[in-house]
Amino acid sequence: MENILEVKRLNKTYQDFSLHDISFSLPEGCITGFIGINGAGKTTTLKSILGLTPKTSGDIRLFGMDMATNEKAIKERIGIVLDDGGFYDELSLSEMKNIVASAYKSWNENEYKAYLERFSLNPKQKIGTLSKGMRMKYALALALSHKAELLIMDEPTSGLDPFIRSQLLDILKEFMDKGGRGVFFSTHITSDLDKVADMLIMIDGGRIVFQEEKDILLDSYRIVKGDIKDLDTDTEKLFMNMDKTVFGFTAITKYADEVRKAMPDSIIERPAIEDIMLCNIKGGR
Amino acid sequence: MLLQLVKKDFLIVKKYVLLMFLVCIIFPLFLIWRSPEYAGILGFVLITIFSIFMLLQYVSLKETQYPKASTLLCALPFSRKNIVLSKYIFCILIYLACCLIFGIETLLFPQLRNVGYEVPILLFLVVSLFLGVYLPIQYKLGYEKTKLFFVVLIMASPFVFAQSLKMENSLSMSFLSNINPVLLLAGSLITSVLVLVISSAISVRIYKKADLS
Q1: B13 to each of B8, B50, B192, how far by Cα in Å?
Q2: Who has the most CB within 10 Å: A115, A136, A175, A190?
Q3: Which residues of A touch B62 (CB under 8 A)?
């Protein structure tokens, strides 16, 4: 499978925060979730990929091309959704669209109008009067109306109600079905990724923690609920992120078979992405 | 593409554009009524500089108010060079609009003395020098820090205005007629263009390295 985005040893240093040797790749045909808590480095990484912030060092290639030398050609093929849209509130939808459309050679006005109709957006409405959900839909309409091959979104579901989040996820699936080559989707709301992501990349403290296919990742961890008396120095080594109460313990493990043998009475469950993210943040590895 | 960026600047401050348009029309007429002796070159020069500066300030204020909008523009296939150049063109268009408005008014109201072509060209040089210094500083330091410059200018304006009134007579056409008009025209225009080209190149260089929020 060809990679549509490759990041190699990306470093970016601020006074109080740094990205350290960030390396990952986005295979074609995947919805990739970029997860991490607030301040983990998601937005800085996305900004570096888009050339919005100068990198200290590293190599970033999109569609096999270097952003530094092929910026315009690359950006023609990318759809962008920023967390609050990135619009001027004074402008109407139509005025903002005219600005965005003029940047793209392959702008498709009919497609844009179809999205507006589908999302019940009035082109004469002022952007400042849109709700957060409507603003996100408008951002998607702009990002998807120029035959984008890669959709890059920074926290698109943050602050949205479950219904609009579900609609957004449907649109992402539709985009991939229509021949989109990839979606790169930063979020700290991991429940959305449970539904749509194929691949997960986690960042914490400016470092990549893992890049893994979602199903493989979910299969490699288990939540264990057991009796405190089953714990000893040997068995405790099998667990991460352990919470103990007087009634028992809950923990995450990567060694489900060993746990089963050592604690046959324990309850072993499949984790959610959030559980995996939290156990990696808390340093339980 | 570049024109859409210029249009964007006018759109985000459209209320103020309308206001400044009215001020540009009314101010010379106000001078005819209250101080007819100053209703020529001085009115034209002051209103042109004021219009450019005020509208540029309003645009910068809006850009500061919506920093993500600039980030989005840079994430689109717009080059940062065009984004910077659009600001210069925006200011030059305001200058041209002021010249046009004043030109039409001098035809309608003979009390407004015709300023000829020398004054607009010299004024263009002044505007170019002002933009040539101001815009690179604003790209480097940001709107918040640079607006201090604006505050100082506003505070100094009563003194500048008073001095301008004293200098009004010396700004008459006789002062310009001592210089070869062709030389004056060509020299001013070439200097203005050079200043703007160098300044925009510096601004582009600064903005290309900018870390967008």
Answers
A1: 9, 15, 26
A2: A136
A3: 88, 90
Contact A51 B74 (CB under 8 A): yes
Give a yes or no: residue B213 inside a domain.
no
> Which of A46, A49, A52 has the most B C-beta neighbours within 10 Å, making it the best mutation to test the interface with B?
A52
| Cβ-defined contact of A103 to B78 (cutoff 8 Å) | yes
Tell me, what's the pLDDT at B165? Answer: 64
- B118 assigned to some structural domain: yes
CB contacts of B12 in chain A (<8 Å) are 88, 90-91
What is the nearest CA distance from A133 to chain B, expressed in angstroms?
17
Closest CA to B91 of B119, B133, B144: B133
pLDDT at A171 over 50: yes
In which domain, by residue range, is B155 found? 2-208
Show residues of chain B in contact with A83, CB under 8 Å: 68
B76 chain-A contacts, CB cut-off 8 A: 75, 80, 100, 103-104
Contact A88 B14 (CB under 8 A): no
In a domain, B119, yes or no: yes
pLDDT confidence band for B140 (50 / 70 / 90): very high
Q: Which three-class secondary structure state does DSSP give residue B104?
A: helix
Most confident of B33-37, B106-110, B136-140: B136-140
CA distance B62 to B53: 14
CB–CB of B66 and A104 under 8 A?
no
Structurally, chain B folds into a number of domains equal to 1
- Each residue of A177-211: b (16+ CB within 10 Å) or e? eeebbbbbbbbbbbebbeebbbbbbbbbbbebbbb
- Structural domain contains residue B137: yes
Of A114, A76, A116, the residue nearest A93 (C-alpha):
A116
Q: pTM higher than 0.90, yes or no?
A: no
Q: Three-class SS of residue A40?
A: coil
Q: What structural domains does chain A harbor?
A: 3-216 (3.40.50.300), 221-281 (3.30.70)
Nearest CA in chain B to A73: B77
Half-sphere exposure of A61 (CA within 13 A, CB side): 12
Compute how many other C-beta atoms are within 10 angstroms of the C-beta atom of residue B139: 22
- What is the C-alpha separation between A36 and A280, in angstroms, rounded? 10
